[in-house]
Design goal:
about 280 residues; alpha/beta; Elongation Factor Tu (Ef-tu), domain 3; Rossmann fold; Dihydroorotate dehydrogenase B (pyrk subunit), domain 3; seven-stranded mixed beta sheet; six-stranded antiparallel beta barrel; 5 helices; 15 strands; about 20% helix; about 35% strand
């Protein structure tokens, strides 16, 4: 990872989101689908001390301009609203690339990519990587409404098939991604499922994949205040190779985890059987 200052070279609306382009001359190393960046928000006079974490959408490098890092953000709280309001030319403090990215199959296998809302941001580069390896790629995108979808047209150009769901039926199938995913996986005989989006969606996708014998890789959405494993705000319970549950950091051990290893029903808690969990009863 590298900490650097980048110039905001683009800031445009895409539905209900903002698509940002940050340009830097810094050497940041290889970026793979699933990596994320943290951004300092609020300016020098702000009390917003914590960074905001975003999946990296795309990265490109040109000798004449440097490296362009693209992010997709939803302006929800004060930090993201500040970032979304910045004019082109603003210098932004960035740390990237962070985390463990998606693992790619060594052999061509049929894959399904599932995303909720702007969780589709890293999926376009992932789809391109998988197609370059000879994998079949089917995509399921979901959101509350049409304006909260992202990447539909880009993924249509890359994927073998794309299925869109919206809660209100404004585009595609009315319902959730979990309603259509079993049929998509059956038709494609999918071996691997890649998912990025809300935690409830990731849990549903993981359960569907487990029932069909497919491997699920899930990029979790946890609050990552520091992004480098120091603050411990993003821990969640994950089962290790030895069968024991440990509280692991999403920002360093993740954000991508095997779906069958995350204890989705215990996210936000420390299970009593987790390694190092507080003991009750005074013993």
């Amino acid at each position: 990872m590298t900490q650097f200052r980048a110039r905001l070279a683009g800031n445009r609306a895409v539905g209900e989101y903002r698509h940002l382009v940050l340009v830097t001359s810094a050497e940041i190393g290889q970026v793979r689908p699933g990596h994320f960046a943290t951004v300092a928000v609020g300016g020098r006079d702000s009390g917003m001390l914590l960074r905001r974490a975003f999946s990296i959408h795309r990265v490109s490098t040109k000798p004449s301009t440097g490296t362009a890092i693209e992010l997709v953000i939803a302006a929800k709280g004060p930090g993201t609203q500040w970032l979304a309001s910045q004019p082109e030319g603003t210098l932004i403090d960035v740390i990237a690339p962070l985390g463990r990215p998606f693992s790619l199959p060594k052999e061509p296998v049929p894959c399904v990519l599932v995303a909720g809302g702007y969780g589709a941001a890293p999926m376009i580069a992932l789809a391109e990587e998988l197609r370059s390896r000879g994998c079949r790629v089917d995509v399921v995108l979901g959101a509350a409404t049409e304006s909260r979808l992202f990447g539909v047209l880009d993924l249509k150009r890359i994927a073998d098939s794309i299925t869109v769901t919206t809660d209100d039926g404004s585009l595609g199938v009315r319902g959730m991604v979990s309603d259509v995913l079993p049929d998509v996986m059956r038709r494609a005989d999918s071996a691997v499922v890649y998912a990025c989006g809300p935690m409830g969606m990731l849990r549903a996708v993981s359960e569907i994949a487990a029932r069909t014998g497919a491997i699920a890789q899930c990029a979790v959405e946890e609050a990552m205040a520091c992004g480098v494993g120091v603050c411990m705000t993003c821990v969640l319970p994950v089962v290790g190779d030895d069968g024991r549950t440990r509280m692991v950091r999403s920002c360093t051990e993740g954000p991508v985890f095997r779906g069958d290893r995350v204890r989705w029903d215990a996210v936000g808690t420390v299970p009593a059987d987790a390694v190092g969990a507080p003991r009750t009863g005074g013993h």
